[in-house]
Amino acid sequence: MRIRADRGAVLVEAVFIFPVVFFVCLAIFEYGLLFAAQSTTQSATRDGARFASANFAVSGSNQAAADQVKDAVLDDLNGRTGFDTPVQLLVYKADDNGNPVGGTLSSCTSSCYHYTWNGTTFVYDMASPQWTNPQACTNKGSLDSIGVYLEVRHSFITSAFGSSQMLKEHTVTRIEPLPLVQCA
């Protein structure tokens, strides 16, 4: 048997519970989009590095090869949510720690190709120090490593969790060796 006063109690409980449930659902949605953006950014650097390891040394022009790596990264970034904005892209010769030779991921000082986002695509920074003569011959020493670094700014839909989050990913791999006939 239902008592008349119970109807008011249910309404009061709902008033307390609804904001909590709404906030949890909003957090799941916001961080789901952030996770998707992180996954897309990571996938883009991996695909770019995989492409670079196979094609950078065999290309006739290192600038053209870096541009092709940029295009491979852009193909992956087409899958991003509408709340993500690329910031910069580096294609660089990596040291043993995965950083650009003679620099850091935020400031490449030698052997790299730096691209910045202009609102629709990545544009090559003509002042960036190019990488010449990548080592891809096993008979002449150890192979060079190539890295791809990408920064993407993810904007939250609401300000409940901040305004934005900078996503930074990099992937490093060895350049695939050239056939010995090309290394003679």
- Quickly count the domains: 1
How would the global form be characterised? elongated
Q: Overall pLDDT, averaged?
A: 87
Number of strands: 5
Question: Considering DSSP H and I runs of 4 or more, what fraction of the residues is helical?
Answer: 25-40%
Name the structural class.
Answer: alpha+beta
- What value does the Rg take, in angstroms? 24 Å
- The first-to-last residue Cα distance is 94 Å
Identify low-pLDDT runs: none
Largest sheet: 5 strands, antiparallel
Q: Which strand order spans the largest sheet, edge to edge or round the barrel?
A: 3-2-1-4-5
User: What pattern of helices and strands is seen along the backbone?
Assistant: HHEEEEEH
Attribute tags:
alpha+beta; 5-stranded antiparallel sheet; 184 residues; single chain
Topology:
Elements: H1 6-55, H2 62-77, E1 84-94, E2 112-117, E3 122-124, E4 145-155, E5 164-174, H3 180-183
Antiparallel strand pairs: 1-2, 1-4, 2-3, 4-5
Helix pairs in contact: 1-2
